[in-house]
Write a structure and sequence with these properties.
With 376 residues, this protein is of the alpha/beta class. The protein has two domains: 76 residues, GMP Synthetase, Chain A, domain 3 (2-Layer Sandwich); 248 residues, Rossmann fold (3-Layer(aba) Sandwich), CATH 3.40.50. 32% of the residues lie in helices and 19% in strands. A hairpin with a 2-residue loop joins strand 1 and strand 2. Helix 3 packs across helix 11 and helix 5 runs parallel beside helix 6. The longest helix has 18 residues. The chain is elongated and about 65 Å long. Binds and transfers iron-sulfur (Fe-S) clusters to target apoproteins. Can hydrolyze ATP. Its cofactor is [4Fe-4S] cluster. InterPro entries: FSCA_dom_sf (IPR034904), MIP18-like (IPR002744), Mrp-like_CS (IPR000808), Mrp/NBP35_ATP-bd (IPR019591), NUBPL-like (IPR044304), P-loop_NTPase (IPR027417), YlxH/NBP35 (IPR033756).
């Protein structure tokens, strides 16, 4: 098969005429961010926010046109709204993928979702995504209807961790049906882009993608939508925190000082935009040798608990550094699902119980709460 070139993509887009304008997307200068990698194509369509709804048809037509180019494997087009000053304009609340910047006071989420929570970290490498998926599965074990939104556009992990492959379907060409496994509904850019393909988008394209994955998905009725946030405190995090009605945020950190510094930044970001912090989780808290039982604090121990006390937030629990947690996540069968009665699942279940009690304002029956964990 021959390589696909950007010129071929632009030639295909030159055949897509914008209704009301009478000219093509290319002639109107509406195409930006074209990226071609291993015959997978990505690009954005810059639009007037007021035309977001009608331009969704143009987006679909653009994807169809590029899909017709020989040897193209996949196409992902994103609507993004930018003003002439270079700053994104604010679309109406129902505009899909308009890529608006954060604007305090405007928060709307999909109907049918009772609570949306963010699982966040100030930096990468602390096991946030593994924690998020196991927390989601533990919430499901409480009898709740759970969804997972993988908001880490540049490093989506949830398709692999949830053991889901393939592309989402759409009955009307606009609203996507979420993928599903283990009773968890899920959406991720990883379902739309090949696993080994980098996403090389600018900020407005990322904002548009996040908006579409939240608003243009048939989530149905959910008790909790868990959002696996990107690491850090950049545009994507602020957009989610300010534009989405988050019921709360869970901060994940390892015990060492450098991770706690970044965790503190993430926590303070949520506080500044009036998102309640539900608590802090200390991941990779301790390591127990499977052969001799020796306990080692590789990254230190208790730092997150101390930090929670300093910041006046709840400490939700300690998760050990264990190869079983990692291997189950990598294989698409997370530990809470693979070993629901095991010691590690009980840790996540205890955390999920605390989170749900905070969200619902109800205390669960003792029979539903996770048992206490004693590691000897």
């Amino acid at each position: 098969m021959a390589d696909v070139t950007e010129q071929q993509v632009r030639e295909a887009l030159a055949t897509v005429i914008v209704p009301g304008d009478g000219e093509s997307l290319i002639a109107l200068g509406m195409i930006s961010g074209v990226a071609v990698k291993d015959r997978n194509v990505q690009f954005s369509i810059e639009i007037d926010p007021a035309r977001a709804e009608e331009m969704e048809k143009v987006r679909i037509a653009a994807e169809t046109a590029v899909n017709a180019v020989p040897d193209v494997l996949s196409v992902t087009a994103i609507l993004t709204a930018e003003s002439k000053s270079g700053q994104s304009g604010a679309p109406p609340s129902n505009a899909p993928g308009a890529g608006a910047p954060p604007r305090p006071g405007r928060k709307s989420g999909p109907a049918g979702i009772t609570h949306i929570i963010a699982v966040a970290s100030g930096k990468g490498g602390v096991g946030k995504s593994t924690t998020a998926v196991n927390l989601a599965l533990a919430l499901k074990q409480l009898g709740l209807k759970i969804g997972m939104l993988d908001a880490d556009v540049f490093g989506p992990s949830q398709p692999r961790m949830l053991g889901i492959s393939g592309r989402p379907e759409s009955a009307d060409g606009k609203i996507l049906e979420p993928m599903e496994n283990f009773g968890i509904k899920a959406m991720s850019i990883g379902f739309l882009v090949a696993e080994d393909q980098p996403v090389v988008w600018r900020g407005p394209m990322v904002m548009g993608a996040l908006q579409q994955m939240l608003s243009d998905v048939n989530w149905g009725e959910l008790d909790v939508l868990v959002v696996d946030m990107p690491p850090g405190t950049g545009d994507a995090q602020l957009t989610m925190a300010q534009n989405v009605p988050l019921a709360g945020a869970v901060i994940v950190s390892t015990p060492q000082d450098i991770a706690l510094i970044d965790a503190r930044k993430g926590l303070n970001m949520f506080r500044k935009v009036d998102v309640p912090v539900l608590g802090i989780i200390e991941n990779m808290s301790l390591y127990i040798c499977p052969n001799c039982g020796h306990e080692a604090h590789i990254f230190g121990h208790g730092g997150a608990r101390t930090e929670a006390d300093k910041l006046g937030v709840d400490f939700l629990g300690e998760i050990p550094l264990d190869i079983e947690i990692r291997t189950h996540a990598d294989s698409g069968n997370p530990i809470v699902e693979a070993e629901p009665d095991g010691v590690h699942a009980a840790v996540y279940n205890k955390i999920a119980t605390a989170v749900w009690e905070k969200l619902s304002g109800q205390t669960l029956d003792a029979s539903r709460a996770a048992p206490k964990i004693v590691i000897e």
